[in-house]
Write a structure and sequence with these properties.
- The complex is a heterodimer of chains A (187) and B (137).
- Chain A is α+β, with helices and mostly antiparallel strands and 187 residues long.
- Chain A is 41% helix and 22% strand.
- Chain A has 5 helices and 7 strands.
- In chain A, strands 1, 2, 3, 4, 5, 6 and 7 form a 7-stranded antiparallel β-sheet that branches.
- In chain A, β6 and β7 form a beta hairpin.
- In chain A, α1 crosses α5.
- Chain A is globular and about 50 Å long.
- With 137 residues, chain B is α/β, with parallel strands linked by helices.
- Helices cover 39% and strands 20% of the residues of chain B.
- Chain B has a 5-stranded parallel β-sheet, with helices on both faces.
- The two termini of chain B are 21 Å apart.
- The chains are: A alpha+beta (187), B alpha/beta (137).
């Protein structure tokens, strides 16, 4: 099957991915989700980078002192009747509040970086699983363990051509920017 | 999947949580602690192989297990448990992102009492745990 014909790349599949994302955010992480147009996403991303610099200058998160990018990427790859990966990119600040919410902890809880990465991996895992279940009830997929990475220090979703307009979904979660997409791979 | 009726006594339970994600183990631990079900011990394992080691050395009445895990996945674990007569009475609850009918049917054949699909509301697990541990009749 050629990648261009993957059923996972249809408009319906895109809507299902967005719906799965909203379902996970609202029901497990108790977060408020809105779709973003390009302008609003750009404003939120710029605000995010600005406040991340401020946190860094004030000696904020330990993780940020070591590696200054605010942006984290969580991806879950899978194989089955179609194969690929679900990728989510979001600011660390949002990841921390989502995990605190999932665990019923205060929003300003000081999680270690490995806890943030583990929780963010589970976030992508849930989105991926919910989406694949939605896409195909009769077949099972094999999911690989989530991979969570910090983007390079000067990375921005506004300048990375891999995440240009039209690539996946731009969302606002608790008024913070998130990019979400399906990346097809050969099975 | 409706929970099977069981005759688990209302004595404190020892529970085993099997998931490769620390976060999910913490979530399930928290959900269990929010129930009024008396719990003696909560053990944790990161995969099926670690879970089997716990089962060989501890008395456990209920297992919460993920399906997709490295080393030994949840289905392999449940198959192993099914081969041990002494573990017949252990309540088996799957908590997985994979909600496909195929996985659910496989779980049913492995005597899983409940299949909880992530994302889930904590009340779902709480209600089921209360239901399956309540004295019958």
């Amino acid at each position: 099957m050629s990648l261009s014909k993957s059923p996972a790349q249809s408009a319906k599949a895109g809507e299902a991915l967005r719906d799965s994302f909203i379902d996970v955010c609202e029901n497990s992480f108790f977060a408020y989700v809105e779709a973003c147009d390009a302008h609003r996403f750009a404003v939120l991303a710029e605000e995010c980078s600005r406040s991340a610099r401020a946190v860094q200058e004030s000696g904020g998160y330990t993780a940020q002192r070591a590696s200054p990018s605010e942006w984290l990427k969580s991806s879950v790859s899978f194989t089955g009747t179609f194969s690929g990966a679900i990728e989510v990119i979001l600011p660390e600040r949002l990841a921390r509040t989502l995990i605190a919410s999932l665990l019923g902890e205060p929003a300003d809880s000081d999680f270690a970086e490995h806890q943030v990465f583990d929780g963010l991996g589970e976030f992508a895992n849930m989105i991926c699983g919910a989406w694949l279940t939605n896409m195909s009830q009769r077949t099972a997929f094999n999911l690989r363990p989530p991979a969570v990475t910090r983007m390079v220090s000067d990375w921005s979703p506004l300048t990375d051509s891999n995440w240009a307009d039209g690539q996946g979904h731009a969302m606002a979660v608790n008024d913070l920017p998130v990019r979400l997409r399906f990346r097809p791979m050969a099975g | 999947m409706e929970p099977e009726s069981t005759a688990v006594a209302s004595r404190p339970l020892s529970i085993l949580i099997v998931d490769d994600s620390t976060t999910m183990r913490m979530v399930i631990r928290r959900v269990v602690s929010l129930t009024e079900v008396p719990v003696d011990n909560i053990y944790e394992a990161r995969n099926g192989r670690e879970a089997l080691k716990v089962l060989e050395s501890k008395s456990v009445q209920a297992i919460f297990t993920d399906i997709n895990m490295p080393v030994m996945n949840g289905e392999e674990l449940l198959r192993e448990i099914a081969q041990h007569e002494e573990w017949n009475d252990i309540l088996r609850i799957v908590v997985s992102t994979d909600g496909s009918k195929l996985r659910r049917e496989a779980a049913r054949n492995l005597r899983v009492s409940l299949y909880v699909e992530k994302p889930f509301r904590p009340e779902v697990v709480r209600d089921v745990l209360v239901q399956i541990t309540s004295p019958v009749g």
